[in-house]
Specification:
Helix content: 40-55%
Order of helices and strands: EHEHEHEEHEEHEEHHEEHHHH
Strand content: 5-15%
Number of strands: 11
Structural class: alpha/beta
Distance between the termini: 48 Å
Number of helices: 11
Strand order of the largest sheet: 3-2-1-4-9-6-10-8
């Protein structure tokens, strides 16, 4: 039986997060778990704003913790930052927290309670939230992000999450000993390092448990361009990951790619000399019908403003941008292999 754990290392990797970092650090300072059993490791990935100064101020103003350590991540990518965290962390349990997030006061204590039930790795429910100064447009984007049609059916998303063993977790708490067997984060995966590490943890024989007693919140990107950029990057690294760690990719990750390929191929048929428009019309009808139905569902969580009528367009944009990103990731990998 796994031994009880008492000490915890909390890690945050940040790049230009001066707007959101103060809030998540304030959340860490307000945890109801014993401060002397918590070390906080903050890794700056070459920020050009006040991110590192905010980290230094936090270290100076919170001597109650076991320790607060600030480190640099010259490679700037997330997996390199998490490897720096792994190398530095001293405690029984390692907790990953996103800089673009909020955690309640019982987040650490709830995570440790679940770990001490004998679990190897635990996580909780992760609804998305808007920034404190949210506008109606931010709330419309939130409705898109919270919809299964606009994001993913991951087990930790939404109010329908249930406790049980899962494939992946958000803001996970891991027994440190796991990494002695599984190893470090793969620095070839700049965006899908969490998919990979959770997959490798399961392949090594460990189990990942989702508990609805643990809660945390992800703050969505506040503008449409920033959200589309995020979706493109996510899709791109799904394409690259197909050739590096295909086992951690689920079918829903590839659905936008399938849509983009079908849209392109049926579109080419429609403008070819054969003028075969039926496949394109069928695809548009099937996708459009689903889009409208699920947009109406998302409308229940959206402000009743004229801008909410853009929901079907927003969903289509998200899927196309993600799918194009995946296609670009695949082609980049193939071209790189051919050149080498």
């Amino acid at each position: 039986m796994a031994r009880d754990c008492s000490t915890v290392s909390i890690g945050i990797i940040a790049l230009n997060e001066q707007e959101y970092l103060p809030n998540i650090l304030a959340d860490i300072a307000q945890q109801d778990y014993a401060d002397q059993k918590i070390e906080v490791i903050l890794v700056d990935s070459g920020s050009t704003d006040l991110t590192k100064q905010i980290m230094e101020d936090f270290a100076q103003n919170h001597p109650q913790f076991q320790r607060v350590k600030i480190l640099d991540n010259p490679k700037k990518i997330l997996p390199a930052g998490w490897n720096i965290f792994l190398d530095e962390a001293r405690n029984d349990v390692l907790v990953r927290v996103d800089a673009h997030a909020r955690i309640p006061t019982d987040f650490v204590s709830a995570s440790m309670a679940e770990i001490n039930k004998g679990h190897d790795a635990v996580g909780g429910v992760r609804p998305c939230v808007v920034p404190d100064n949210a506008t109606d447009w931010n709330r419309i984007l939130l409705a898109v992000e919270e919809s299964i049609f606009g994001s993913s059916p991951a087990e930790y998303r939404g109010a329908k999450a249930k406790s049980g063993y899962v494939k992946s977790i958000f803001h996970g708490a891991y027994r440190k000993a796991i990494f002695d067997k599984v190893g470090r984060f793969n620095e070839n995966l700049a965006r899908t390092e969490d998919n990979d590490i959770n997959y490798r943890i399961r392949k090594a024989g460990y189990k990942i448990y989702l508990s609805t007693s643990i809660n945390s919140y992800q703050i969505i990107r506040p503008t449409l361009p920033s959200m589309l950029k995020q979706k493109y990057g996510n899709g791109y690294w799904i394409g690259r990951t197909l050739f590096i760690q295909p086992g951690c990719i689920n079918s829903y990750h590839l659905a936008p790619l399938g849509f983009v390929v079908l849209l392109a191929s049926t579109g080419l048929l429609a403008i070819s000399r054969h003028r075969k428009t039926l496949p394109l019309k069928t695809l548009c009808f099937l996708y459009g019908s689903s889009d409208l139905v699920l947009s109406l569902d998302a409308l229940r969580k959206s402000p009743r403003t004229p801008a909410a009528l853009s929901l079907p367009v927003l969903f289509a944009l998200m899927h196309i941008v993600y799918g194009v990103g995946t296609l670009r990731g695949i082609t980049d990998h193939v071209v790189k292999k051919l050149r080498s």
